Give the backbone structure.
Amino acid sequence: MYKIGDRIGHMTVIGSGPDQVHIVKTGPRRGRVIRKPRVRVKCICGAERVKVVSELRRGKGTKCITCSNNITKLVAAPKRIVYKLKNVYDSWKVLYKYKLIKSGKKTNKRILTCLCECRCGKRKYVRCSQLRSGRSKRCRACHLKYLHSLKA
């Protein structure tokens, strides 16, 4: 059994929870009551949940849904490219969010984008393919400053 303060993945145990009761309906154990102990946990994002101890031991559910959706690395299927947190592509720094957006009204094509932050502090969703190819190097304001510095 876990004690208060134990860490399991992203979760920290903050107390015990009510047992999960399950009555077996078929088979030789039919009619028996099975009790699964549960604990109250708090994720690093602040979300509190009640989890079954056996699932935590197996490594299932060591993150809340919110943390699972904020993927730390994402593998693009065809070329197996990994976009990791805090990778820097020229002036863009990849942050924690990834988003699939539709490319247009007529097509249902979805495009993988990364939430990036420029050196100047501006945040923008940038296509991952443009980061990889080097087509998008900085935000528009920084690009205009760069062009003015070339003219001088």
The radius of gyration is 23 Å. The longest helix spans residues 140-151. Residues 7-67 form one domain. The helical segments are 53-57, 65-69, 128-133, 140-151.
